Amino acid sequence: MTATASGRSYDDIVVGEVLPDLAIPLTRTLIVSTAIATRDFQDVHHDPELARERGSKDVFMNILTSNGLAGRFVTDWAGPHPTLRRVKIRLGAPNYPGDTMTMTGEVVSKDNGLVEVKVVGTNSLGNHLAGTVTVAYSAVSEGEDA
Questions:
Q1: Rg (CA), the chain
Q2: How far is the C-alpha of 58 from the C-alpha of 48, rounded, in Å?
């Protein structure tokens, strides 16, 4: 496998390849600021007291942030050349402040310049997210099936 500052080569990626784990500390600042940055002003994402009134133990991460972190996990591994094509996830256990979400991934398909990675994000409560992230390489090497 080749991993350089310029990114991963499509030719070097193999189905079954496991991505390095990524541990993401779930700070209150991360949860609140990313909810606001994605224009999600639901109080359960920034007001602990109102979140508790609505049955949550604390504020929790919004889906747009979870989508972004899943995409980031794969694009950090793939490098700057491929384009994020699709993020398709389902949410499970909430991400609360003070926990850590660990992202894991595995290449499940590679075809015609597209690489699909199965991703799972877990925290102390279980799976926060699970799904797939697809990246597209614009130029496929001559030896690769198109």
A1: 17
A2: 5
Q: In this structure, what are the phi and psi dihedrals at residue 115, rounded to the nearest 5 degrees?
A: -120, 125
Start-to-end Cα distance in the chain: 21
pLDDT, one tens digit per residue, over 60-104 is 999 999 999 999 999 999 998 899 999 999 999 999 999 999 999
| Rounded Cα–Cα distance for residues 5 and 75 (Å) | 13
Q: Where are the domains of the chain?
A: 3-136
Distance in angstroms (rounded) separating the CA atoms of residues 44 and 74: 28
| Cβ–Cβ < 8 Å for 146, 112 | yes
> What fold does the segment set 3-136 form as a domain?
Thiol Ester Dehydrase; Chain A (3.10.129)
Orientation of helix 63-78 relative to helix 28-37, angle to 10°: 100
Smallest CA-to-CA distance from 128 within 72, 67, 42, 43 is with: 67
